[in-house]
Write a structure and sequence with these properties.
This protein is α+β, with helices and mostly antiparallel strands. The chain has 15 helices and 40 strands. The site of (2R,3S,4R,5S)-2-(hydroxymethyl)piperidine-3,4,5-triol has 11 residues, from loops.
Amino acid sequence: MSSRQAGHTERCGSVSVEIGVDGRHFKLDTAKSTYALAVTEEGYLGHAYYGSSVRHLNYDQLLRLDEYPQEPRLLLREQSRFLNVFPFEFPASGLGDQRRCALELEDAQGYPGCDLRYQDFELIRGKPALEGLPSSYASEDGALTLIILLEDPHLKARVSLYYSLFDGEEVIVRSACLENLGNTPLQLSALISASLDLEPAAYQVLSLDGSWGRERQLNLRPLGSGCLEIDSRRGISSHEHNPFIALLAPGASQHQGEVYALALCYSGNHLQRAELTEHGRVRLQAGINPATFGWTLQPGSSFCAPEAFLTYSATGLDGMTHAYHDFMRSHLLPEPFARSHRPVLANTWEAFYFNFNEDSLLKFARQAAQLGWELVVVDDGWFGERHNDESSLGDWQVNPGKFPAGLGAFARKLQDLGLSVGLWFEPEMISPNSNLYRAHPDWALQLPGRPISQCRSQYVLDLSNPAVLEYCRHSLCAVLDTAPIAYLKWDMNRSLDCAGSLYLPAGRQRELMHRYVLGVYSLLSYLRERYPRLLIEGCSGGGGRFDAGMLRYCPQIWCSDDMDVLERLYIQEGTALVYPLSTISCHVGAAQCSCTGRNWPLDLRFLSALLGGFGYELNLGALSPGELESIKGQLKLHRALESLLLCGDYHRLLSVRENGERDAWCVVSKDRREALAVLIQIKAKPNTRSLRLRLIGLDPALDYEIEGQEGCLGGDELMHCGLPLDTLGAGAQGRLWVLHAR
Ligand code: DGJ
């Protein structure tokens, strides 16, 4: 279906799009929110409203068309002032809007400025995909997409704004595409995916920031005058700043109040910003980072910005989290994996590093099989002459010294033990000490005349070069086609420095950062299509590329190299705020954490790893018989809880980040009949009274049995009075409750 009919409301389950009778007013409704746009008499597209559901709107008032400098109206309007206050839906720079703009464009002579006026709209059923970029998806019956066309006749440029609404979801997917309709090239220096001009309020800005070993920590601060930016310039979404931003209205917190959020579906250099303007309004934006971007748009060609996932919650961060989790599980993750069983994996990295051969791996595998693990991941060191991290990236041929009969024979031996095999790759990299580099030194990113800076003794491949992509495709498939590999860990261990391409012409170097990401996506989508059942786990030196873009191809992403229980509580709280639990790869590590040197008991390491895709990464030889028995029990428990963890609603109960002592969360099934709750106490104050843990999301009218306990407790009692924590001592310890409605 495609319609241009004005005065019409199109519905799709819980969502609808209403087109005004004049074809110039647009009201988009989800079950809980309304998003509204209107076109002024001159053709400017304004953002009228976003918030809780409203039946009727006074657009002119919301756009402040009756206020100075819009009044007296139309011809007497003073253009420059008007352009600097009007709540543009997609602001373009250069003519008078002095705030941060979504579009920056120059003509062939280099003159800036763009004047976008409304042309038309189109309403279609379903959700179109963006070419070359990760896209959310839906069936024709599952979504509505409104496309609004704006044009600058002088530049002969057209912008199409996309808004997709999904039945049953609270996320609106936005993106923008620019077309050059003229005969001369246009220079694009910014095309932001979504811009939102919000009503004045004293917002707080929330972002997920950190570094290696402490990724995605919650960072909340007031928005003062000026512009607050969160970005990456490293070529990956980065450990430092996740492509996500939220604004919390006054009074908003975990479980109450208004929250506006944008998560960008992009894995390269991104920018999120919130600008408190001189007139008190707030402009919120997310998109490709203009600081490292430029694009020559040839006549007849177009450029699309990645998707941004927009959501509004009137129930605090909890509502935002549910909106993102539900949406990503149903409309982003690769379908075969979204809600289905993931193998419990045994990763060899911290058990062996580079120090293994087929015999030691088989010994490890035999123990793994006895414990009930399902997949052995050979993490690094299996190829070329890779005996440490100083060589061989790019030489993806199995090392015959380590696997004398080849990978296929090794994989079959594991299959005989009931195990599948996973392999580590770092496809985007090239070691200076590799056959690949000796044959193709021009394939590394570099700045002519300068030495290439090394990081972990490696360079980055130029993925803007089609010949390089062809090599990557070919060399990966050569391995995947010769052995039954069930899982691939896609690692990426450095920033894109010395980011020059010998392939791209001189005037096009600013296209490199984006072209590189398009190269990553083209490889990943090729693999997804060719091996639909291959489980690809994303990784970037831990969690340096944990973003919605990667999740379109990788159903799970390694969350952090840091497996310290306390550090993981911080990292996982931030990660689970946006991303579904099934996507957060968590391992039970060794007793002594290699990142912090701190020791943690096995049961706490298990409880902390429950919040995500589950596995183990430790030396089995170092475990006592008692610990091995406990691991068998953990696996049984995990198996029983897995579908609840994959499909249920996650609620944060306590945050150690806030209280310094304990962390707790629960997951409740969609029908509210099953639930689990986890509490991890790091320490407690002596000589205090016992605490109670109040659960969230249960059915108050149901009674619940708690495994291992006599009798039943009401859902209302569990949520309002809470579970007793009286036998917990003052030291580090944890608890798991499993609840079933009677
Ligand atoms: C960095 C990853 O984060 C680790 O898990 C491991 O895969 C190493 N790379 C291997 O080199």
